[in-house]
Specification:
Strand order of the largest sheet: 6-5-4-1-8-12-13-15
Mean pLDDT: 94
Strand content: 25-35%
Largest sheet: 8 strands, mixed
Distance between the termini: 35 Å
Structural class: alpha+beta
């Protein structure tokens, strides 16, 4: 197996609409930078690439455009391109699903699309012989389910702590943290981390990759010569 890695900064400039709340927010500064990272794979028969982006979300239509562009440049099928969003609520507004009166910045959207495409391509230019291993742990007592069945039969999200009308919680928290470690000959190693809980802990008008970015930077600081990609697992109700 050969693997490759690439990363590029996509921190938006001041004034761009921030996505993720039902209120108007525009970028006023940077708490920490946003990135696109890519891990490429080639087993000699098939090629694939995982691309992660520090943004709230991307529409199906947007992802199809990005995947088709990457597919065309790399000569791989679109289904071999996987795009994952961190779901940070302190990143740029990129699609048409508005929560308030967000405005699309076409110049930034074009910059983001080109950077995402280029990062995937650059990952394939960094191919090194690799060995892969997997692991799993737990992150206890971090997450909670926010979806409840109420006593009147309604389903409610975030009905408030201690609400007397709550009947029972809907679902269980998955506390599993999954790891794919990639040891690479002659290049930085990689660790892909996957965990499912909402990235919505910062707020405000300063750009931030939120806790997925903190996981990434903390792991890279703890393991010199290692690059981390964070994949958000299912977390809509968590």
């Amino acid at each position: 197996m050969k693997t490759g890695f690439a990363r590029a900064k996509v921190t938006p400039w001041n004034g761009i609409s921030i996505s993720g709340y039902y209120e108007t927010r525009n970028v006023k500064g940077v708490l920490d930078d946003l990135y696109i990272s890519a891990a490429a794979f080639d087993d000699g028969k098939n090629k694939a690439v995982i691309v992660t982006a520090d943004v709230l979300m991307l529409s199906y239509k947007q992802c199809k455009v990005y995947k088709d562009a990457i597919s065309c440049r790399l000569g791989i099928p679109p289904e071999a391109v996987f795009i994952n969003c961190s779901h940070t609520h302190t990143g740029p507004f990129l699609n048409g699903e508005r929560f308030g009166d967000e405005v699309v910045d076409e110049k930034y959207c074009a910059h983001f699309a080109k950077t995402l495409e280029d990062t995937a391509v650059l990952a394939f230019e960094d191919m090194k012989d690799s060995s892969l291993s997997v692991g799993e742990g737990e992150a206890k007592n971090i997450s909670f389910v926010r979806r409840y069945k109420m006593k009147d039969g309604r389903t409610s999200t975030n009905p408030s702590v201690g609400n007397p009308n709550i009947d029972h919680v809907l679902g269980e928290v998955n506390e599993a943290v999954k790891f794919l470690r990639i040891d690479r000959e002659g290049g930085d190693d990689m660790v892909i981390v996957s965990f499912g809980t909402h990235a919505d802990t910062v707020g405000g008008e300063l750009v931030s990759a939120d806790w997925p970015g903190f996981v990434r930077s903390t792991l890279e600081s703890a393991l010199p010569g290692t690059k981390c990609l964070f994949l958000t697992a299912s977390q809509g109700d968590v």
